[in-house]
Design brief:
The complex is a heterotrimer of chains A (about 230), B (about 325) and C (about 300). Helix content of chain A is about 30%, strand content about 25%. Chain A contains nine helices and ten strands. In chain B, α4 (about 95-115) crosses α5 (about 120-140) and α10 packs across α11 (about 270-285). The relative contact order of chain B is 0.17. Chain B has helices at about 1-35, 40-65, 70-85, 95-115, 120-140, 165-190, 190-200, 205-210, 215-240, 250-265, 270-285, 290-305, 310-315, 320-325, and strands spanning about 155-160, 160-165. Chain B has a domain at about 40-250. In chain B, a hairpin with a 3-residue loop joins β1 and β2 (about 160-165). Chain C has one domain: ABC transporter involved in vitamin B12 uptake, BtuC (Orthogonal Bundle), CATH 1.10.3470. Helices cover about 70% and strands about 5% of the residues of chain C. The radius of gyration of chain C is 19 Å and the shape is globular. Classes of the chains: A alpha/beta (about 230), B mainly alpha (about 325), C mainly alpha (about 300). At the B-C interface, α5, α10 and α12 of B face α4, α9 and α11 of C.
């Protein structure tokens, strides 16, 4: 089985500071992969480099055989990939519906607006209010929903559960399982590995700009000691 | 130990810099004294006035980071005040010039107090609008004689006994004012006050959090810049023996920005070099039928796109510049 | 004769009309500046030159090709907008990563060059441009005489202002523009071509200035310097309104035009400077401007 998303020896810089030191990872089609790691280890930078938001980078990134390194930022999404940033990136001057309709459709097979409103009924109720008037959980739902509409088949999700109440976290977990059923490929960055354990197939542990460990979800229990040590939890 | 090996080359580079600084100043003074024997003195005097004007402007843009688009008000305003005092009231040249400086300071206080309430591009637009307001005032006020301006301004006698109608006397007076003005600006830039201005330029928020009342420092820098600009404007009125609307128009504010940008923002020598190039260019173009603004506009665009460090900045960064220790 | 505050009502109404006309131009031009500034963070100093360019396109289209006012009304915004797009693509776009002051300085240089070139080619004096036949003549409103062309300018510019406001606040393209104003990188990562959006925005702003130029041609004379002094007044309008809101720019434009007209009635000596005085007062009382949000 060949990987859908492949990252080889990826280095990245913010200005002068060298953040990623040779990241290697792969994600198979339809798989949900979770990157664990403490703050400042390079998890977000990895997603932003794959997406092309961090431009100062070296190495190889391919998605379904297409070279993402050579693409302008606005072309990357058209390769079939969508990004939900940690800060969610909901626009204050746009209504909920405008936020939802903002990303252009890049492929067929995305969710229709009706499907999205069925999955996230809160968003339909509040579709005329400004995006940032939503609660944190609703903003997270909106940030995910607007990518699902585009037809992207690979989703990069940065800490979707951060700062949210347990019942909302459960709802997000439900959405992720639903996405997996539909064949979506997901790269999830998380600190909360109890949540990740319920949705991910495979894990990477990130440490000082590199992937230090890789294991399937079945080995999670056996790896607890290592995780407690590296994650400091 | 490690510290010492690091410090030694730094100290010697510092010594090298100050040595070449002294050499450059000596060369500059020699040029200042010898130039009138080779070049047309009125051209030189005009150049010195604009050099001082640009250096005063650079005190604000280069060392405080504020882009004023309204310095014509101080330059042209001081020219009017000096010209009026010398011609109508018969004041001696030094007092007439002092009145010009005082007028520029008052204008600077008023414009500065209003403009520093906003930052960046807004600051530029506000100073532009306020100086345009002053332009309309000058257009309508009777003492400026509207479109005619104040003509045949007498140069008079400096301190009552040096006849400034003698071109060489006038030249050396202007050269002395120029040298003194530059020396003062240099002292201000390298004083503790100047350091705080640079800190504000680099990071205004940090300067505020360190407890400096940034607004007062900005206003002080604005008024000082206005004062030296007034000095240049007052002297220019005596050199050219007229004061007209040209000097208060916004194009004049643009010209001084161009001189500073072309020579090198934030360098001591840059504005003077820039003034020299622009004044020479204007003299050269005066005989052709191409409007000067086409050329100045193009130079502006090229500088912004390609040479943002200006002539002196680029030179200092080149091999030659490093060799003679400019950097 | 009817008097209001000791002034004949005809004179009052006449100056109010002049104020509304000037206000129409202030609104159109400050609207374009606000649209450009919102996304590009550039103060377009060349806005006055682009307004002049629009008027010249109208004049030259008539003199060289016999194309009338109505063609010019469509042609000039396109020509000036295209010119703006070329400038943005080739030069202005290189400056976005630098201090915003460089954008101001660059467009200042552009304005000087354009105005110098036109003065060189066409001389400094103004040339008349006749209003179209359908809009000549006037209407007697009972209390005053309204030249039809002036009424047309007021109505048409109001329609254009509202259309641009609706484009930005109510359409999907406008939503893209607003989102890109907030976070261009994220918008681009969605697959939206933000550099193209920037070019289009500059072209839209420049095109609006060109349109204002055509509208102005029959009222003021067409001359290379017609935009120079106007743009400084418009800067003051923009400072008063604050550039945070599109509607703010429009409303402030009309308000200050009327304020200027009224000053001509009651204290003509100050009519040149009243907008600058208002700007100074607003800055003292409310530094962010009437509609501004930022500190």
């Amino acid at each position: 089985m060949t990987a859908l998303l492949e990252v080889r020896d990826l280095h990245a810089w913010y200005g002068e500071s060298h953040v990623l030191h040779g990241v290697n990872m792969h994600v198979n089609k339809g798989e949900t992969v979770c990157i664990l790691g403490r703050n400042g280890m390079g998890k977000t930078t990895t997603l932003r480099s794959i997406m092309g938001i961090v431009r100062k980078r070296e190495g190889r990134i391919t998605l379904g055989g297409q070279d993402l390194m050579a693409m302008a930022l606005h072309r990357t999404a058209r390769a079939g990939i969508g990004y939900v940033p940690e800060e969610r990136g909901i626009f204050a001057t746009l209504t909920v519906e405008e936020n939802l309709m903002l990303p252009p459709q890049i492929a067929s097979g995305g969710m229709t607006v009706d499907e999205i409103y069925r999955l996230f009924p809160n968003l339909e109720e509040r579709r005329r209010s400004p995006g940032t008037k939503l609660s944190g959980g609703e903003q997270q739902m909106l940030a995910m929903a607007r990518i699902l509409r585009t037809g992207a088949t690979t989703l990069l999700l940065d800490e979707p559960t951060e700062g949210l109440a347990p019942v909302i976290i459960d709802a997000i977990g439900e959405v992720l399982r639903e996405l997996r059923k539909r064949g979506m490929t997901v790269v999830l960055v998380e600190q909360n590995f109890r949540f990740a354990a319920k949705v991910a197939d495979r894990f990477y542990v990130m440490d000082h700009g590199q992937m230090s460990h890789e294991f399937p979800v079945g080995e999670l229990a056996a790896r607890m000691d290592m995780l407690h040590e590296t994650l400091g939890v | 130990m490690a510290n010492n090996t690091q410090a030694a080359p730094a100290a010697s580079a510092e010594a090298q810099r100050s040595r070449s600084g002294v050499i450059l100043v000596v060369i500059g003074l020699a040029l200042l004294i010898l130039a009138p024997f080779f070049l047309y003195p009125v051209f030189l005097m005009k150049l010195l006035c604009f050099g001082l004007f640009a250096a005063a402007f650079n005190l604000l843009l280069g060392y405080t980071g504020l882009l004023s688009f309204g310095h014509a008000a101080f330059f042209g305003g001081a020219a009017y005040f000096t010209a009026h005092a010398a011609k109508v009231w018969g004041w001696s040249p030094e007092l007439a010039i002092l009145l010009g400086v005082a007028g520029a300071v008052v204008l600077g206080l008023i414009m500065g107090a209003i403009a520093i309430r906003r930052q960046g591009i807004y600051f530029a637009m506000i100073t532009l609008a306020l100086s345009q307001m002053f332009f309309f005032f000058c257009l309508q006020a009777p003492f400026t004689h509207g479109e005619d301006g104040i003509q045949s301004v007498p140069r008079g006698s400096l301190f009552g006994f040096i006849n400034l109608n003698d071109t060489m006397n006038m030249y050396f007076f202007v050269a002395a004012v120029f040298a003194l003005g530059l020396f003062c600006i240099w002292r201000i830039v390298n004083s503790p006050f100047g350091m705080i201005l640079k800190a504000i330029r680099e990071n205004e928020q940090r300067a505020i959090s360190l407890g400096y009342s940034v607004a007062n420092y900005k206003l002080a820098a604005f008024v000082m810049s206005a004062a030296f600009t007034g000095l240049a404007g007052g002297v220019k009125a005596l050199v050219m023996q007229f004061a007209t609307l040209t000097d208060v128009q916004w194009q004049m504010s643009g010209e001084v920005i161009l001189m500073t940008l072309l020579g090198g923002i934030g360098t001591m020598a840059g504005p003077i070099v820039g003034a020299g190039v622009i004044i020479a260019l204007q003299n050269f173009l005066a005989t052709s039928n191409i409007p000067v603004t086409v050329i100045t506009g193009l130079v502006f665009m090229i500088c912004v796109l390609l040479f943002r460090r200006g002539l002196v900045g680029e030179l200092a960064d080149s091999k030659l510049g490093r060799m003679i220790g400019l950097r | 004769m009817t008097m209001v505050f000791g002034v004949p009502i005809q004179a009052l109404m006449g100056q109010l009309l002049v104020g509304l006309i000037n206000g129409s131009f202030y609104a159109l031009l400050s609207l374009g500046l606000a649209v450009i500034f919102g996304l590009l963070r550039v103060i377009n100093f060349a806005h006055g030159a682009q307004y002049m360019l629009g008027a010249f396109v109208a004049l030259l289209a008539l003199n060289w090709f016999g194309l009338n006012y109505w063609f010019a009304l469509i042609l000039a915004p396109l020509v000036v907008g295209l010119f703006g797009a070329l400038i943005e693509r080739s030069m202005l776009s290189r400056l976005y990563k630098l201090d915003h002051l460089y954008g101001l300085l660059f467009t200042f240089g552009l304005a000087l060059t354009l105005e110098g070139l036109f003065r060189w080619q066409f001389g400094a004096s103004g040339q008349p441009y006749a209003p179209p036949a359908a809009l000549t003549g006037g209407m007697n409103l009972g209390f005053m005489f309204l030249p039809i062309y002036r009424g047309w300018v007021i109505v048409f510019s109001l329609v254009v202002c509202i259309a641009v406001w609706a484009l930005i606040e109510k359409t999907q393209l406008g939503a893209k523009l607003r989102a890109a104003t907030e976070n261009p990188t994220l918008v681009q990562s969605f697959g939206i071509n933000v550099p193209m959006l920037l070019t289009l925005t500059y072209a839209l702003g420049a095109g609006l200035a060109g349109l204002a130029g055509v509208l102005a041609a029959p009222i003021y004379q067409v001359s290379p310097l017609m935009g120079t002094n106007l743009i400084i007044v418009v800067f003051a309008v923009v400072v008063v309104g604050g550039m945070g809101s599109i509607m703010g720019a429009i409303v402030t434009g009309y308000l200050l035009g009327v304020a200027e007209g009224l000053t001509k009635v009651f204290y003509p000596e100050a009519s040149n400077i009243v907008i600058f005085v208002i700007m100074a007062i607003v800055l003292i009382l409310r530094p962010a401007g009437l509609f501004g949000k930022e500190a």
